[in-house]
Amino acid sequence: MTQSFYITTPIYYVNGAPHIGHAYTSIAADVMARFKRLDGYDVFFLTGTDEHGQKVEKAARDAGLDTQAFTDRISADFKAMADAMGVSYDDFIRTTEDRHKASCAELWRRIERNGDIYLGHYEGWYAVRDEAFYDESELTTRPDGTRVAPSGAPVEWVREPSYFFRLSAFQDRLLTLYEENPEFVAPSSRRNEVTSFVKGGLLDLSISRTTFNWGIPVPDAPGHVMYVWLDALTNYITACGFPDENAPRWHYWPADVHFVGKDIIRFHAVYWPAFLMAAGLPLPKRVSSHGWWVVEGEKMSKSLGNVIEPRKLAETYGLDQIRYFLLREKPFGTDGSMSHPAIVSRINVELANDLGNLAQRSLSLIARNCGGILPARGPATEDDTALLTAAGALLDLVRVNIDRQTFHEGLEEIWKVIRAANGYIDRQAPWALNKTDKTRMGEVLRVLVDTIRVVATLLQPVMPSSMARMLDQLGVSADARTFAALETPLTDGQTLPPPQGVFPRYVEPVA
RNA sequence: GGCGGCGUAGCUCAGCGGUAGAGCAGGGGAAUCAUAAUCCCUUGGUCGGUGGUUCAAAUCCGCCCGCCGCUACCA
């Protein structure tokens, strides 16, 4: 039976337009989803939008739209962005869907039945203007005695009834979870932060609000809507059919990896497992968090006006090129920077020169000197064996890196083989063998084709359309592009299509 | 303030107890099959500072300096 694998992106909050950060998370998750599919897993890949909460209600009002109409529009834009970036999701969930409302209500009831929800009061310093609560320590007192928020807005002490989740009861179980599953939070620096946060003591969590309506109603508690994070996190089980354990997708739960940005680790690594424990449901296996992109040396922000629109980037540089850059340029878990020269360098040096040109020079020699016929392997020389062995070891190396979300290291491993292949073709000089030993020339070219085939097969998750074209040119049929298919040699003597460059160099547009 | 991390070649970083490494950039050469793409050789660092442990420290420990992260409900 095929093993299942469940991957999620966060569901994106619809109070603003999609930017490169959203695209980055989704592309990384997509690469893992595509990789697992090619590796023989039954993959379920989920993305979607988070549509409740006061901020959405307000954003809709500001836009002069009905709240649902507003979320419909923004959600559609996120979906269009995912499609434009080649994100191969299997389901796109929206928290305003009926299936999700039913799922949240049931999760609430289960937690309540286990005694981990109680009614209390939520109180604190509230700034009406900011629609936010502030801690005592954040406030300043004016000469006239009034307290104001950091924004300058006056605050007042408010007290409202609220349901609470008994988070404090889960401290030990959470610590045991991190202890027994060191891979639960990635990267490890984040795991340390999460652990020390939990060790510092957990307070119960307010999980209902009475001050606005745009949310999922708390069962049997008129006037209360659920805290947005309880609502949002539940999407991961809703999509599996919760609470119907006979649903066709229920077997995917628990998730294998939740991809998240570093800003929302706590919700995924502390609250979410606690909610699930309280409901008696299995826990996800891993929460993998990534860092931010700094753009042209500046932190990306709306006020600086340097927010990167992902579709624009793909237009300028090419979708596969951008997907490659995002995963290659920096380690997944850390912050890193993106700049025009850096993108151009990756495209021209690694894609055009190292890989594109390697394929082009190998294939055009076959086209010209072998009549376009794929030559057979010969007896392997030491040099042949060295290259083929390196290529043969690649799948295992890349798989380990994908499993750890160390995408940049996996790509580096692939590039080591590409560089080795460029060294090989120079040493073997098939263009010279054309005059002295045509048989050996063919054998050398076949070693190159077989090596490029491995590389192109493994790169499909990152650059799906470019690698499809490269595999076409290598004579790999469309149904033989899985990792398992690498075991089967290509058919000798087949006619290859005429080679065409896959990665053009980026040239600056004339001003 | 507390806890944690980082500081290694011009740039981005790996190494984490045994005579300093990679990629890019720079310099020289070879080749000419290829997207003027490739290959080979090479310049370059007192591994933030300072004490200590050790036969041996970038690697372990202390202190100092400089950056950064986390330190709860509002994404």
CATH topology of the largest domain: Rossmann fold
Please summarize the sheet with the most strands.
6 strands, parallel
- With strands numbered from the N-terminus, the spatial order across the biggest sheet is 3-2-1-13-14-9
CATH superfamily of the largest domain: HUPs
Number of helices: 18
Number of E-state strands:
17
What is the number of domains? Answer: 2
Please name the CATH architecture of the largest domain. Answer: 3-Layer(aba) Sandwich
Give unreliable regions as ranges. Answer: none
Describe this structure as you would to a colleague.
- This protein has helices at 20-38, 54-62, 67-84, 98-113, 171-180, 188-199, 228-233, 235-238, 265-279, 310-317, 319-328, 340-369, 382-392, 394-403, 407-428, 430-436, 438-459, 464-473, and strands at 4-13, 42-50, 91-94, 117-127, 132-134, 140-141, 147-148, 156-165, 185-186, 205-206, 208-209, 225-226, 257-261, 287-290, 293-295, 298-299, 336-338.
- It has 18 helices and 17 strands.
- Helix 9 links the parallel strand 13 (257-261) and strand 14.
- The protein is α/β, with parallel strands linked by helices.
- It is elongated.
- The protein folds into two domains: 4-290, HUPs (Rossmann fold); 340-487, Orthogonal Bundle (Isoleucyl-tRNA Synthetase, Domain 1), CATH 1.10.730.
- Helix 10 (310-317) crosses helix 11 (319-328).
- The mean pLDDT is 92.
- The strands form five sheets. A six-stranded parallel beta sheet has the order 3-2-1-13-14-9, sandwiched between helices.
- The protein binds one RNA strand of 75 nucleotides through strand 4, strand 5, helix 6, strand 10 and helix 7.
